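thoughts on these tokens:
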Amino acid sequence: MARHIKTLLFIFSFATSLLFTLTLSADIDILKQIVEAEHELDYVGVRLRTFGSRTVEEVVIHVSEKDTYHKTISILGEEKSIDEGNRRERRGGDRRRGRDREDRWERQRSQFSISEIKLIAENYVLEHRRWGEKIAGYETDILIIKPKFEGRPTKYIYFAHENQLILKVQDLDAASVLRGMFVYTRISFDPEIVEKEWDEFSDEIKVRPRTYGDISIKDANKVLKKNLIEPTFLPSGFKLQHVYKHSYKGSTPIRLKYTDGLLDFNIFETLKQDESDDRDHRGWTKFTVGNTTVFRHSRGSTNAYSWSNKTVRFFLAGPIPSTESEKIVESMLK
């Protein structure tokens, strides 16, 4: 009898494990389909996008993986604090530059890349549900991406059941606070409509060339005239994804981009030109690691750190907990 019960328990455990594996595999397949649809489908639409305290209306057009753009057509809401009002004159130039960015077409960034799917599967739990409600006239499913580790975000992806294109995204931080979202109010996949809109928009789409590009670590060392300093501590699940060479005000910062598939943080390393090249750290807090002074600044869920040695300036920023950020900084100072 006891042996019979053990056999039944083993069969039940095996069946449950197999069902979980098959379900997980199916949800990963759904994510792959979503990524492929985002890259391959042609469409034109209008969406509402909220980030921080701002809500804007944007037109989006995608005619190829290379030609995918968005442009702000109206600002629907923006909260202004008293402090921001007091800084209005000082920040007037920044605001004008911000409006210039809003008035022009920008490249549309993908939610995911194919290379990130494996990392997402390793670090997050995926749950696919039939949603059924319509967005922009299309019935939708939902894919929920939940973190396996503390301090990570949750993402809700609403996508068209018919062709898997993303129609709505909600990004929640580790405290389940909504940090950003977008939702399409109108969208068309009709080839004739997309072609007509492309003919109209293409003449005015003048996107500024990127000021950065991929670079090998070997070439990055040549730019810095010394070896890159990489962190020996990384939060669980994070890996180096890209190394970029930037061009900014006569300098060439090297950027190391780390990701867990959904969450990113960046480390910039820049050759110091002179002592006046140091950052203005007014409003930053200060602490010391060994003989190095480190400056910290927080804005929303993003933590930023700045420090220098004799020849290189370092800057780290990303929406990861300060406990983990400071361990990264400390590992680069050892």
Residues 2-40 form the longest helix (39 residues). Residues 6-24, 81-98 have pLDDT under 50 and may be disordered. The radius of gyration is 23 Å.
